[in-house]
């Protein structure tokens, strides 16, 4: 079973009413459980989802300190590049390498914008939209969830 098969299984669980699926073969034992909106691999530590839940809650508090109408109006016009899988987000191919994209860079469909490491496999994530990167929503080397926004893109 490769990463794409696992991602298909996670997508299936996300769209179905199932809360838990376990698969066991001679080579692999996989258990996927749904907690809230997004499915989470059971092998992940419990602390990671807690941290993920705390980060989005902290961001609105920060934006509430700024004028509330400006961020809402600005972000509504932007497209979002989202994580297609659960894993660890990396902005570059290596610690000393340049980031795939920076704020202000133009992206086209098919351009690699980041890497997500899942189960020791490094998956290049490509943009599905055309535009200009206006914000990177995730810190380098941090865990991301399925369908979590990674970048805000201004259409051009």
Automatic annotation (TrEMBL):
Q: Known InterPro entries for this protein?
A: AcCoA_biotinCC, Biotin_Carboxyl_Carrier/Decarb, Biotin_lipoyl, Single_hybrid_motif
Q: Which residues form the Lipoyl-binding domain?
A: 78-154
Quote any Pfam family the record assigns: Biotin_lipoyl
Q: Which domain of life is it from?
A: Bacteria
Write down the Gene3D superfamilies for this protein, in alphabetical order.
2.40.50.100
A GO CC term?
acetyl-CoA carboxylase complex
What pathway does this protein act in? Lipid metabolism; fatty acid biosynthesis
Compositional bias ranges of the Low complexity kind:
57-67
Respond yes or no to whether keyword Translocase is given for this record. no
Keywords on this record? Biotin, Fatty acid biosynthesis, Fatty acid metabolism, Lipid biosynthesis, Lipid metabolism
UniProt entry tagged with the keyword Transmembrane helix: no
Q: Where is this region: Disordered?
A: 57-76
Q: Which GO terms describe its molecular function?
A: acetyl-CoA carboxylase activity
GO process terms (BP): fatty acid biosynthetic process
Role noted for this protein: This protein is a component of the acetyl coenzyme A carboxylase complex; first, biotin carboxylase catalyzes the carboxylation of the carrier protein and then the transcarboxylase transfers the carboxyl group to form malonyl-CoA.
Q: What is this protein called?
A: Biotin carboxyl carrier protein of acetyl-CoA carboxylase
Recorded source organism is Larkinella rosea
